[in-house]
């Protein structure tokens, strides 16, 4: 089974959300998602300053097998993107839950985090 950090929240689209720090969360795709995609060769990052609503398609990850949209599990403003992925997109494969993060969002509605899955629920979700 893939790595599922207990401190993160998870979406049904296989994104993870870190705990909020000063109202900002980090978002990436899960280890399960990167394993399904295969070797990541390109990440289309959102623009800093863009506003998004939970469920919006804000980024994309392309691999040798497929392209997959990345949806934001929370609403707010994109405040940072992981520009290191431009040069090293396969960081998403090597460390999906850490250095392979995709973007950071300043939350407009922190209660949206309550609607996401915890690690145990996400693990069950992945089992189908």
Automatic annotation (TrEMBL):
BP GO annotations: glycine decarboxylation via glycine cleavage system; protein lipoylation
SUPFAM superfamilies xrefs: Single hybrid motif
Modified residues (N6-lipoyllysine): 65
Cofactors: (R)-lipoate
Domain Lipoyl-binding as annotated: residue spans: 24-106
Cofactor binding, note field: Binds 1 lipoyl cofactor covalently.
Keywords: Lipoyl
GO cellular component: cytosol; glycine cleavage complex
InterPro entries, A to Z: Biotin_lipoyl (IPR000089), GCV_H (IPR002930), GCV_H/Fam206 (IPR033753), GCV_H_sub (IPR017453), Single_hybrid_motif (IPR011053)
Similarity comment text for this entry: Belongs to the GcvH family.
Record's function text: The glycine cleavage system catalyzes the degradation of glycine. The H protein shuttles the methylamine group of glycine from the P protein to the T protein.
Subunit and partners: The glycine cleavage system is composed of four proteins: P, T, L and H.
Protein name in the entry: Glycine cleavage system H protein
Name of the gene: gcvH
